[in-house]
Amino acid sequence: MFIHLLDILGTAVFAVSGVLAAGRKRMDISGVVVIAAVTAIGGGTLRDVLLGRHPIFWFHDPTYLYVILIASVATMLYTRYFRPPHRLLLLADAVGLATFVVLGANAASMAALPFVIVILLAVMTGVVGGVIRDVLCAEIPLVLQKDIYMLAALAGASVYVVLKMASWDNTLVTLLAMSTVIILRLAAIFWHLHLPRYQVRETPLKG
Amino acid sequence: MFIHLLDILGTAVFAVSGVLAAGRKRMDISGVVVIAAVTAIGGGTLRDVLLGRHPIFWFHDPTYLYVILIASVATMLYTRYFRPPHRLLLLADAVGLATFVVLGANAASMAALPFVIVILLAVMTGVVGGVIRDVLCAEIPLVLQKDIYMLAALAGASVYVVLKMASWDNTLVTLLAMSTVIILRLAAIFWHLHLPRYQVRETPLKG
Amino acid sequence: MFIHLLDILGTAVFAVSGVLAAGRKRMDISGVVVIAAVTAIGGGTLRDVLLGRHPIFWFHDPTYLYVILIASVATMLYTRYFRPPHRLLLLADAVGLATFVVLGANAASMAALPFVIVILLAVMTGVVGGVIRDVLCAEIPLVLQKDIYMLAALAGASVYVVLKMASWDNTLVTLLAMSTVIILRLAAIFWHLHLPRYQVRETPLKG
């Protein structure tokens, strides 16, 4: 199935992003594989744990783990000789995020929850892996700081949930939701779009 | 019900504390809302996950999410023009902590667990949100470092569990447990009380 | 039972390692006990949560909590006067890791999961406590950076799973799996063995 192939691609690409993040922190190769794994499956794992959905999605299909292992080793070998293809990786990451959000929305929508919860779980599926990756690297998570990343996931998840409620065709809903995420991400990358930053002023402006 | 109102207040106040913490870390507004949310519902979520209690408390009542969203936006707007009312927030935080501890003790006591586990889950409900907030801000959690915060939660939870075992009236137990938390927190704030700090000496004093 | 005694020893020794880590971060004594606790029971807790195994192992046996409390207080008192016995602690830690890995493999193997998942859950049981300890101390987890720590856990878990599949005697399997972990750890300590570190080169070597 097409979505399953995208799922594998998303897993591989998120694993690559984990390897590259770990590679800036002087970890040993076992640590690198761990960071790759939490980046790739952290979001879906938290979703399943919060839903009380057992077994966790990667428990009965170890394919995910093998994909992570292969992607990690390949990335470590590749980057010994070549510069990582950052632009291609950003595109692949957008496709991966879109896939994870749609798969997350789909998994969460089976549980008869309020639509706002389904949207939230879909966003989580897409972004939490990257959050854990950055926490383990002792950094403030990137997705909390910049880029239209969470917003893209939120928009895609909302499109999915709303069109699904309107009983649109499943394939069409999936395509539209994924396109929303990918287009927003690519627009953010090409035009350097960011949400406004928030900073607490310790001295008041007036009053 | 009165306790439900306090629960909403606690959620809002914890969200505000999340926003202010995020505001020192140059996050974008989506990141700020995420920090507000994990601060407000992180403790109760971990409690429910450990108890295997599904759906998680905020899954069937999205009110929590709306409260967090409104509190976050209001705080971001307010702090553009005014200095945050730190003293008032500390008082509100004490009431929020007291509420979360009592609600946590109540939820955990339904599961027929040893009393020390109930106390622990009640403390978790109160403090884990702040711990995750600080981890996401790449800081050592404040509650591990100073203030009589965990100790106040522990005292309140113990009062709750002991008096409940003695079959005291429900409302009275709730009031006494909450008062314990609030009084200890306010005493700690006013008199700058801290538990002793512990530091490993790398060179021995004797021997 | 012998393995239960080792479990208690492992819990105590992991708690001690938590106390010593916290002691470098100027935490108050309540924070120190929290770090000790997550180090000692964090791995097994995540394993149980992922397995959907309720109640969590320490919920129906608060012995673990008392052991952690006693070990924490004893360590804090001891280090006021004496230097911690680092070499002895490393040996005890190796035994603790071995015990946790075997107990984790045993718990996970009851759930009829693919053998690679059982191995992973066993490794998690052994190492995740230390990972959370370091995250709460705002450090990059040590086990991701150096030492043959995860690899030792992985080797021990694999020995356990493979020999168990071959229907070897339970006690023998346990002893061989634990020996594997302990010998690898001690070898790593004595000969300063590390896995290779991985570092992304931002400029390419060729091409």
TrEMBL record, chains A, B, C:
Q: Keyword annotations for this protein?
A: Cell membrane, Membrane, Transmembrane, Transmembrane helix
Instruction: Cite the Glycine transporter domain residue spans from the record.
Output: 5-78, 91-164
User: Which compartments is it annotated to reside in?
Assistant: Cell membrane
Specify the protein's topology with respect to the membrane.
Multi-pass membrane protein
Q: Any stretches that span the bilayer, and where are they?
A: 63-81, 88-109, 115-136, 148-166, 172-193
- Pfam families recorded: Gly_transporter
Q: Which GO terms describe its cellular component?
A: plasma membrane
Transmembrane helix found in the keyword field:
yes
Which family is annotated?
Belongs to the UPF0126 family.
What is the protein name given in its UniProt record?
Membrane protein
Q: Which organism is it from?
A: Dictyobacter kobayashii
